[in-house]
Structure formats: structure tokens, C-alpha cells
């Protein structure tokens, strides 16, 4: 009887497992295996070449730029987004009359396609005469800025766009967490004479740690994987100034047909994401305890 | 003292409203530019249009073959959603109740997928899809969508299943109901709230997905909305405002869905993320 039940439990697992093994796990393992080969669409045979691809990665300037950009991108986006989303959520948790409308507006950018958001903001930040952002700056008496054309600035312009799009998402997660905190805690703090700042640092922020963990992990991983928005805003340019790991990976694989080499980049990339995720969860856990 | 307390939220509210206006400006710019000529849009980007013409929309609608691509988007999202909720529900129940070692090992294998970014699988996946003759079919995107979301959804659902009381299932099994019958008749209906939040989270991802269609759908009759938007960027260098209705048509379905369903969407996202 229990044997039959156990068999039925396993039977329920099978469909999901088939999809997962065939279309996810197998390709991942295959990428790993191919990362040690010279697999290319330009030649018929595949040869084992050991760690050559990996060695080459560290001499490939575009790859190194992509890695650096993805890190800068993920870290800055995570910090700015959460630094804005926490106070926003705390404010919206108060008894405001326009609370629902405000929440709806702040979250709205998150439902737009990142591809379209990228196109839209490349018009907004355009350095041609119609660019509304520069027009606004000149109305304020400030000079115009080459948002996407200046190599040193372009990455930060993309980050700004992403912050606009995703801060509302983080805010919603913080709000859900805040709504789970008993209001009595705040009342008690108020009676004890704690002011707004003290209450925020000593009560609100520590209780927000679970959602801070979720949000920072989500935006770090999202930042490291960034593709659509860069594809539509800058295509990795000017030069290679805004290239990310995934844009380089897709170029090496599908434009240059260097599949083995791109696989090695993929392996490096996922090691990266894994380490960052685990490290972050670890750090956050320590913070949660103390 | 009480005066001060009553005043403070008003000031806060006013500054939040100003901030909301700033956040909404890009969306306003997107909408208002669709009704302008390039000259008008350049002269005053944020001003209201002089005359309201919707001709740009009609042209965009035809150029994008909107009914066709909308249907493709819908089919992909619909079938992906069924697969990405039903299969992980079944699996989560099986994993939660299985006592065998093999069940536990398989669970670890599935959960490991949580830390592996999907992009690493793209190259072999591309080859696999063409070997299976699924290239340029909507099924390719649907299958990939389902497979990629399995680890997270199993993870999300299993915590929910574990919180369900065992008594209901036990009484069903005394009544002679088998495991699979109990799952479909009793457990699955109970999972509705968590399935709803997963469905909302995933529907946004599936609908807005660009990389999957870009890789697996090549012809125009199989394309999704965003591919048609992408095709037309740069087509209008002089008459550049004509591209704006296309962007609007690109984001409109989800934006309208969001405005109607916003309470559920926000709730679903919060619940899905916090539990995940």
C-alpha cells in the first residue's frame, strides 16, 4: 500500500522532471562540456582543447568589460533601487489618502516590457534637439548632456532607466513586509519617546531584513543577467562601453559562431551568479541574527 | 502637538504626489508623442498635441500585423502559464509527500536550478530545439518557458503544500481515493492562492519575454509583439514619432491588464516574492 502510494508520488513528479531534465539541466551540462572544446559553426569537427577557452576569456577585452559592467551595473542598481524603495514603502505605509493611486503609479513601470522601456528612454535621453530630458535641463539653465553617447556616462544612464523601472517592484515587496509588522510596536516606540529616525533605524529597518534579503538578491541577479534594456538602449555601445556579460555571450555564440568559447563564458557567468547569490544570502543571514 | 501630527502626512503626501508625477512623466511622454508630428514633438516634448489624430495608430496596427502577433503572444503566455503552474504543482505535492531517497535526491536536483542562470543553457537549447524540429514554432518558446520556471515554482509551491493539513488527504485516502485522485480533487483546488500569485508573476515575464522569441521564432507569422516593435525601430528616422504608437501597442496589453487588475497583481507579486 505505502509502496503503491510512494510510486504515485514519484509519478506526479515525472512530467515536471522531464521538462526540467531535457530542456534545462541537459543544456546546462552540455554547455559545461562544450566549454572545453573548440565547437564552432564554422567547422565540422569538434576538438577537446582543455582550458584554452578559459585562458582566452581573461585576455578578451570585450569579455572583461562585459564582466566589469555587469558587476558595476548590478551593485549600483541594487544600492540605489533599495535606498529609494525602503523610504518610499515606509511613506506609503502611512495613512495617506492617495495611497492606492500612488502605489499604482510607482509600480506601473514594472509591467512595461524592458525592451520598449529601453527604446523609450533612448528617445528621452536623446542628444538630438527633440530629446526631452536635455530640453528640460536647458530650460533650467543647465547644459545638455550626452547621456548615451558619452562612453563614461552611458552605463549610468542605463542604470537610471532600470531604477525607474524596477524601484516600484522592490517597494511593493517592502510594503508587504511592513504590513506584516504589528502597529503596536511603533506605538510602543512612540510612547517611549523615540522619534521618527530612531524608530526607523531601531525597529523598522531590522524588521525589514527578510525583504531586504529578497530584494537585494533579486536585483543583484537581475543586474548580472541584464540583456534586453542594453540591447535596446545602446546595443552595448558606444564602442563596447555598456556591454554586459549576456550581450557578449550572445554575440560570441550567435554572431561570431564561437560556441565553445561562448560556453566557457556561460560557465564563468553562472559560477559568478552562484557565488554572489550564496554570499549574499550568507551575509544577510548573519545580519539577521545580529 | 496634535496640529503638527495632523499636518505632517499632508506635506509627505504632497512630496509623494510630486514624485509620482515625475515617475509618470516618461509614460505620459510615450502616450502624448504618438499624437504629434516630429516637428511638434521637438518643439514641445511634453505639451499637449494641437490636433488629435489617431492615424499613426492605424498605420502601426497594420504594419505590425497586430492581431497576428497579439494572438501569438497570447498563445505563448496561455500555454506557458498552464504548464508552469500545473507541472510544478504536481511535482511539489509529490516531493512534499514522498518519503523515498530518490524523491529527495530528485528534489535537490530540481532546486539546484534556482542558482543556475538560464542564459547558460541557451546555446545547446538552440541546437536541441532545431534537432527536435521545434524551431520557429510557438511550442519552442512555450516549452522553454515552462522548463525554465520549474525550479522556482516547485520551490514556491512546496512550502505551501507543506503547510496544508494532512487530515483532509488522510480522510480522502480512507474513502478509497488514490494519491493522484486526491491530488487533483482535493489538494490542487487548495493551492489556488499560491498558483494565482505564481501565474501573475510568470505572466509578466512570459508576455514581456524578448530573448526567447528572438532565438526561436524567425518568421513574421510566428513573431510576437515585441519582435514587431524591434523590426521597426530605425525605420522612421525622419518621421520618428510614427514609431511611438508601436511602442504603445507593445506595452498596452499589459498596462491595461495592470490597471484593471492592479490590486491582485500587486498582492500576487508581493506574496510570490516574499515566500520565494
Please explain how this structure is put together.
Chain A: Residues 67-280 form the ABC transmembrane type-1 domain. Chain A: The chain crosses the membrane at residues 7-26, 71-92, 104-124, 153-178, 199-224, 259-281. Chain A: It is a multi-pass membrane protein. Chain A: Its main location: membrane. Chain A: It is found in: Cell membrane. Chain A is built from 13 helices and no strands. In chain A, helix 7 runs antiparallel to helix 10 and helix 12 packs antiparallel against helix 13 (259-289). Chain A has helices at 2-34, 52-57, 61-92, 99-107, 114-124, 132-139, 151-179, 183-191, 196-207, 209-224, 228-233, 245-255, 259-289. By secondary structure, chain B is mainly alpha-helical. Chain B has a single domain (54-275), classed as MetI-like (MetI-like fold), CATH 1.10.3720.10. Chain B has helices spanning 2-33, 38-43, 55-63, 66-97, 101-112, 122-131, 138-162, 166-174, 179-190, 192-208, 211-216, 225-232, 244-275. Chain B starts with a helix and ends with a helix.
Distance between the termini of chain A: 49 Å
Helix content of chain A: over 70%
Helix content of chain B: over 70%
What is the CATH top level name of chain B?
Mainly Alpha
Give me the secondary-structure category of chain A.
mainly alpha
Top-tier CATH class of chain A = Mainly Alpha
Largest interface (CB within 8 Å) is between: A-B, 92 and 91 residues
What general form of chain A does the structure show?
globular
> How many domains in all of chain A?
1
Domain ABC transmembrane type-1 (chain A): 67-280
GO biological process, one term (chain A): transmembrane transport
Transmembrane segments (chain A): 7-26, 71-92, 104-124, 153-178, 199-224, 259-281
Protein name (chain A): ABC transporter permease subunit
